[in-house]
């Protein structure tokens, strides 16, 4: 069995905030694969849905000051994986 790719410190923080915001019981933030799909029924992903996306957007706005707009194609792509979401938010974070 191969080990999951390591999370950066920022990815681990984002993962923990996702687990907390979505009340993902039984999910260890450090075990979330950085490139695994966040949404849908992928076997290695979290299987989140559109309601979860709203919760994530609210958490990101509160913690990072970044607004995710549904009409922004880059914001939609950011929801592909933990790594994509973290990168997107960090690039747009208000100082």
Explain what you see.
The protein is an all-alpha fold. It has one domain (9-23, 34-92): Orthogonal Bundle (Non-ribosomal Peptide Synthetase Peptidyl Carrier Protein, Chain A), CATH 1.10.1200.10. The chain has helices at residues 9-21, 50-64, 73-78, 82-92. The longest helix has 15 residues, at 50-64.
Give the topology, please.
Elements: H1 9-21, H2 50-64, H3 73-78, H4 82-92
Quick overview of this protein structure:
With 95 residues, the protein is mainly α. 47% of the residues lie in helices and 0% in strands.
Shape: globular
Structural class: mainly alpha
Radius of gyration over alpha carbons?
A: 13 Å
Low-pLDDT residue intervals, each spanning 5 or more residues: none
Provide the β-strand percentage band: under 5%
Query: What is the CATH H-level superfamily?
Result: ACP-like
Q: Would you tell me the overall average pLDDT?
A: 89
Domain count: 1
Find the CATH topology.
Non-ribosomal Peptide Synthetase Peptidyl Carrier Protein, Chain A
* Count of DSSP-assigned helices: 4
Series of secondary-structure elements, N-terminal to C-terminal: HHHH
Any idea of the CATH class?
Mainly Alpha
Query: What profile does the largest beta sheet have?
Result: none
How much helix, percentage-wise, in residues?
40-55%
């Amino acid at each position: 069995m191969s080990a999951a790719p390591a999370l950066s410190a920022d990815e681990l923080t984002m993962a923990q905030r996702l687990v907390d915001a979505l009340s993902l019981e039984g999910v260890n933030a450090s075990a979330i694969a950085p490139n695994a799909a966040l949404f849908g029924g992928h076997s290695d992903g979290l299987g989140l849905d559109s309601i979860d996306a709203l919760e994530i957007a609210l958490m990101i706005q509160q913690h990072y000051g970044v607004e995710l707009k549904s009409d922004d194609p880059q914001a939609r792509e950011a929801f592909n994986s933990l790594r994509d979401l973290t990168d997107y938010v960090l690039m747009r974070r208000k100082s």
